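Researcher: I'd like a structural prediction for the single chain below. Treat it as a standalone chain; there are no partners to consider.
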Amino acid sequence: MKKGFIYLLLIISVSACSKSDSPETETYEPTPLPLSIPQLFSDRIISPVIPNNNPQTVEGVALGKKLFFDTKLSGDETMACASCHSPQSAFTNNTPTSEGIDGVFGTRNSMPLFNLAWNYRERFTWDGKQLSIERQALEPVENPIEMHSDWTDVINKLQSDSEYPELFRLAFKTSLITKELTTKAIAQFERTLISANSRFDRYTLGQETLTSQELNGLDVFLREDKGDCFHCHGTPSNPLWTDNIFHNNGLDTNVTDLGLGGVTGDSNDNGKFKSPSLRNLAYTAPYMHDGRFETLDQVIEFYSTGLQNSTTIDVLMKNIDNGGVQLSTQDKADLKAFLLSLSDPSFLTNPDFQE
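Model: Treating it as a single chain, here is the predicted structure.
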């Protein structure tokens, strides 16, 4: 009996060891990776938006980064997401509109990518067509004037790759690749693209001083009788420097690109486009949804003297009858100096964002 009991214990022990060592019974979970939220943001704005079905993980972000820079996502394998969203240009490119793999240019400027996790209104792109970062990443792959591929082909290429199935298993606990998981990974990487280290940021935190010209430019920006910029782009209490709302800002009398109106079908939305962040303007020229202004000086001059009236002009364009806010030469120069102080050179060189 004693020998039999010892034998039974040995069997149980061996069985337990084999189960614990068996990969089929491993309880693997990706490693959580909370966003590194800057003090400036945590002190002034609410927490970022992270979908419950796509939590940030070390493995998901790493996979998303690899996919973001991979040309396999395009039809002829010559273009990646980074082709139109370059780290060296604050994740845009420096052409008025973007060129696709077939040499065809689109009609919209490539929006810079940063601080996307704080877009509480959850409408992305210039016209608000996409309702999440994950959904935004779906369209460029198949768009005929962008990457001009097919998701079925892309998934087949990724599935047959020597690395991707294991990377997807580590990120999502499955080696079966889908377009939904692909865009989830890209979205995880894009949410890590946080810019919060401009000279103005450091000034706000009491770590740096601004010049008298930059401070006067801030005053011009905030005053309704001068620049009157803050209604759409916020104040120092909003470090995003955008309201993430859609406005007709007086670019054209005859609206040809419907913007938000083309998405909602409401004619009252015609000509409305998202207010872009004013961060990193030193690196993101040309400006506006169609890249019509090559320089920041041209943008300031437009708001000073070039506003065009139309049926859907935003009520915030209060100086439309005068063509603009009519800034003095000095105020224009000061406003430009302030706007440039919102640029963050460390964002361009952050090794976490490089290929």
